[in-house]
Amino acid sequence: MSSSIPPSVRKASRLQLARRVKKAVPATKEATRQLFAFIRLLFSLDYTKLDVLLIAAGTFFAIASGIPFPLLGIVFGELINDLNTTTCSESATASSDVTDSVRRKVFYVIYLTIANFCFIYIHCSCWSFVSERIARRYRRRFFQSIVRQDTAYIEGLPSGDVISRLVRDVEVVQSGTSEKVGILISTVSYFVTSYVVAFIKAPTIAGMLVSLVPCYFLMSYVGGYFIQKYSNRINEHVDAATAIASSSLSHLPLVCAFSSGDRLVKLFSDHLLGSRMDALKKAGTHAVQLGLLYFIAYSSNALAFWAGSRLIADSVESDRGDVSVGAVYTVIFVLIDASFILSQVAPFVHTFAAAAGASDRLQSVIHRESRIDGTSETGAKSAPFGEEDIVFHDVHFTYPSRPDVPVLNGINLTIPPRRHTAIVGPSGGGKSTVVSLLERFYDPSMGELLIGDQSFRNLNVKYLRGSIGYVQQEPTLFDRSILENIADGLANSSNEAHRDLAPFVLDSTLADLAASIRNGTAENEAIEGHDPKVARIVELVRQAAASSNALAFIETLPHGLATNTGSAGSQLSGGQKQRVALARALVREPSLLILDEATAALDSNSESLIQDALAKLQDRVTMVTIAHRLATAKDAHKIVVVAKGQVVEEGSHVELVAKGGAYAKMVEFQNLETVDMPAIPEAYVSRDTSSSVHGELDGSGAKEMAVDVSLSKTPGEETKTQAGSDETVEEGDKAKPPRWFTLKFTFALVRPNLGYLVLGLSASVVIGGSYIAEAVIFGHTISSLSLCTGADNIRHGGHLYGLLFFIMALVEFSANIVSGCAFGWAAEKILTRMRILSLRSLLNQTITWHNTDGRTPGTLISYIISDASALSNISGSTIGLLLAAAVNLVAGIVVSFVLAWKIAIVLAPCIPVLLGEAVKRPMLALAPDISKAGLAASNITELLTTRSADDELNPQSSGKNRRDYKLLLSEKPHDMEAADSQPDGTVPSVPVSCGQGMNIQLQDVHFEYPSRPGQPVLCGVNLNIQAGQFCALAGSSGSGKSTIFAMLERFYRPNRGAVLMDGTDITRQLGTEFRDDIALVPQENVLFEGSIAFNLGLGARPGHRPSQEEMEEACRAASIHDVIMALPEGYQTKCSHDGKQFSGGQRQRLSIARALLRRPRLLLLDESTSALDGESERRIQDALMALRGRTTIVAIAHRLNTIQRADRIYLIEGGQCVEQGTHNELIARSETYRTSVIQQSIQS
């Protein structure tokens, strides 16, 4: 026969077979590799004998738990035979024997269920303990490894990869080693035992039902594949939408200021709508899968009873008695259930494979040796910081993420000990990179960094960072008390005197102390209840706060040091945050103090006080300052000018000015214009300056230093209500809406989809009723197969009820598809609408609402995603299942009492018990979900901070999660430094503003924040700004300047007074159209996740889509166009979280460009040039001056050279305008202003 096959066909067959073998071999190898990887996972990372015992016990009892159910099938089958025997028998003796037999079997059922309960409980507990112990080991070891990794490695990871591995991969490992392992082992045991039992009881029927296995597996695999496919697509859209919502809620002031809420909501809705068809396909696939589940089950019943009736009839006719109805029932009972359950747990194999893969990814980090290990004990733990020079010798450096862009090009720099060295230069010149090398976040690519003759590479990294105090350009505070934030500096301090204090900093002691003080306990009394070392920590914190000039404003806060700073320090102004961060650096008494623009947000008086305090430390501390404000650097012992990654010149202020080089040019750019200092008339010196402005004010109000809240963290859009009342009522005091209101609102959401819901509910009624029909048919089937009914009746009954089971299979299949598709489509539409409405509503809530009851962006995001999804269940499959269950319950009770009321009475008490457990279990399981979601989101946000000397904590400590998480990510360096090293050339034309400037008046404005009643922030402010003027607000930090901006944007309404724009009181307006003419550059410049073009476009007027030419024009005016064009993707370059890949100065210029793109009539600048070098600042000033006349400009600035050309300068102190005039006028008559000018003067 084979000879007739052509050779070509045989050869093709052999080749095809060979290809299949080749494909099968790698698949087999991969499966074997995954199996061994999973076993290795179970016994990895310092496992103990207890782990081995738990795994062995879990495996044994999981196998045991698969045996009782098949045995129960045998018992149930014999019970049915006994009951049928009783029905056929007319003998009292036989009936008594059957009763005894039934009683014995009932006890067997009890014994088997108790044994099964114990086996399941033990194996689930064992595997749960195993997974928890493994996850704990992986979490601890991974965290320890991440802490010791070098910054270059962290930056080389994809965005969010560290968090993903720590959270998601560990969760995957925990899920893959949990009770699912026991369930799979138990299911396999159940499956094997069931088929053994089935082939013993009725091999013919068992052979027929073997087909169930491939049917269920095919249904599960194909359905699971498509559901996963559509779910991934949906998640991509939802994740993108969630990122937009998160950014919007985190940066709500910008959203409100630029009226960009509708644009962001539109973008949010576009992402959600993009997933609609995938959601419908997913719902349809799930409906078909569920329909097939019932179709296969009922069809199997039909086949089994039809075949069983024929076997029983043949047995009766031949009088063999080898097949009984009980045997048929046993086979159906065990095989249908076992085959279905095995198909349902088959996806667990993918879970185990995923766990093995996640374990490999985690272990690749865990076992990685870091070149710069911040936790290692190796290396020298002594360095002559106070005796020897720190030397950069021909240092070259490129960031690993951009190896082709040099940042430092052979820099040679000497930092003398116990002296103040200032590093100045243009933005992007490499100044912050010098700091990164000093902190040893990186090692030089070439060259050497030395202290004396000792290389930094030979120093113990932990000791090095513990010896350094570091204050960032944009300080990060955490959502806890000021006391805890400052005391963080003591953690891992290299100072021997602080070693015994670290445990109290790392545990919850300080948090408990702050909470006690906030609850009304006096500070001294609260401290007495703790260890004496806690009192020492508090004293050190107070001393550091006094040195940083922070103690004065801290003592005015409601709870002093125990006052919570809010999320990211939102309850403090920018200057106050910088002072707290400076105190955090000073508290450890560092040997090397690094200040990266640490006083940029401070007024000149505060800066002068801090500089005086720092000067006292110079005899024992080596200090390095990075500054754009040259007045900060002029008193340094040594000034180093760095540009294009090289030292351009160095020397003292006087020496460098005399040289007439780069530094002298910077001085020329920044210097306040020379003015004659006339003799000050006595009347100007002695008079009450406040009366010259707006009449006599309450003296006590002028003296009170109210605390200002940073405008950049002010959330919310106000509600359309009358001034005052809406912002003074705390949201927590408002009564919750009645339940009927909630139901009414829910019905309004559901109403557009009533057609789909009615269709789905109708199908659910059919599904619920089918369970009762199944019970009735099953009962009649068992009765019809009784041996005493005769062979013909048995065959007839099998055919009839088999047909009815098949009809039920078709009905169930159709009803499930209709129900699933109808509910799925309705749920998707309602879910999308609910999420869009939720975001829109959140963007329109009052600031008071956002600032109370712990409403952080993370918690609100969980409301949009989780709560909206939960609400959609009222129109999804959940309500269908509830209706089907209700129909089944009610109809089942009625039918039970009709057919067998005595048995029904006996079983009725079980109903409330089962219902109670069904309700209680999910409530207990899901209660903490929202709080956990909010906490997780907050922790992930806090991860995006710096790995500085202040934050290098002990990974072995038992501190709070947020303390530990601080270590995970180091600050992304200023990736754009090299691109920005060459400033833009000339000042281009400025985008023409729309119309003319706006007249602004503040009339007797009083205000206090609702969260701090009784602490006035504005105390009768009166301002009159003419259209087209350039006006400035000057004064100390926390005096109320940013709050005035909040009044102009109507983020808040004043408690008393009026805010007029072109004669209209905006506090009495309902709409926010006035914001269309206003542009804001906030103090903390943030960017949304998206392209540069998208971020710029948010500044455009509502309804206007800016052209590429308009964006380029605005960017040229802000001196950022050349930097953008140097990027590979230009204006389409994606901005990361908060735009951290840009330097502070570059983010500031992008924010200015975004504001200019609006062509505003009123431009608000809140410290808009604090992070810019002198030349960039001068170009932007020239650009702004070109706007004067067409645009009203109001600027807040501590750099007086920024505002010296202003038409009017208002001096704000204690929430009042105490003086006003031009720069020269204020020098002549304001002692405060004149002192600030002298302090900031950088004349040689």
Automatic annotation (TrEMBL):
Record-annotated membrane-spanning stretches: 52-76, 106-130, 181-200, 206-227, 287-307, 327-349, 754-780, 800-827, 879-901
Region annotation Disordered: where it falls in the sequence: 711-733
Gene Ontology CC: mitochondrial inner membrane
ABC transporter domain: residues covered: 390-669, 1000-1239
Translocase found in the keyword field: no
Annotated GO MF terms: ABC-type oligopeptide transporter activity; ATP binding; ATP hydrolysis activity
Membrane association type: Multi-pass membrane protein
Gene Ontology biological process terms in this record: oligopeptide export from mitochondrion
UniProt keyword annotations, A-Z: ATP-binding, Membrane, Nucleotide-binding, Repeat, Transmembrane, Transmembrane helix, Transport
Domain ABC transmembrane type-1: 56-354, 758-915
Top-level taxonomic group: Eukaryota
Signal peptide span: none
SMART domains: AAA (SM00382)
Compartments it resides in: Membrane
Any Pfam family the entry gives: ABC_tran
Membership in a protein family: Belongs to the ABC transporter superfamily. ABCB family. Multidrug resistance exporter (TC 3.A.1.201) subfamily.
This protein's name: Leptomycin B resistance protein pmd1
Source organism of this protein record: Fusarium falciforme
